[in-house]
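Hi F.,

I've been meaning to write this up properly since the lab meeting, where we talked about keeping a consistent format for the predictions we share between groups. The idea is simple: the sequence comes first, exactly as it goes in, then the structure tokens exactly as they come out, then a line or two of notes. No screenshots and no reformatting. I'm using this chain as the first example so we have something concrete to point to.
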Amino acid sequence: MSAASEIDRMHALVGPIASDLSLDVYDIERRGATIRITLDTLPGSEGGITLDSLSLATRLISRELDHEDPIAGQYTLEVTSPGLERQLRTPAHFRREVGKTISVRLRDPLADPRRLQGTLVSADDRCATLLLDDGTERSVVITEIDKARTVFEWGPKPKPGKPSGKQSKKATAKASAETTQNPTSTKEKQPS
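Output, unedited:
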């Protein structure tokens, strides 16, 4: 049995289990003797997948694979979540992450630039379009991408009207110190 038909068979077995648990089969891949099944919450869901959900899914999938035996020979089963910074390998992965910041490395080592980062504004079966930091849009053919992943931005989002980040706090502190050291006098000069 070819690797592609094994993966198709795995999708057919794992898909209904994931659906019953209100989960999505994000990816299934074979790396040597390891079958990695990546599950996630349904697109548009609030929050992420829980350890309890992954544990239950692992037990159910393992039992189904033992019963159906879709893979020839020995293998190690991994059931995991895609994590915060998830790999984007298929057009479906790109479509699911529209609106998020992603990082892309192109296959061609002579591409200029080879690495891109920006907001994924659209994706279809062939291309992904990024809005780069300089305001330009760049379309990339998915098959020309070597690696792509989402970029998780650490820390809370700034509140409207409040300074954000260490630089803004430093700037605020500096302005406050300057005001304290050089107070503006509101007294009028007395005539001499």
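Notes:
The CA atoms of residues 127 and 142 lie 5 Å apart.
The chain has two domains: 3-80, 91-150.

If this format works for you, I'll send the rest the same way.

G.
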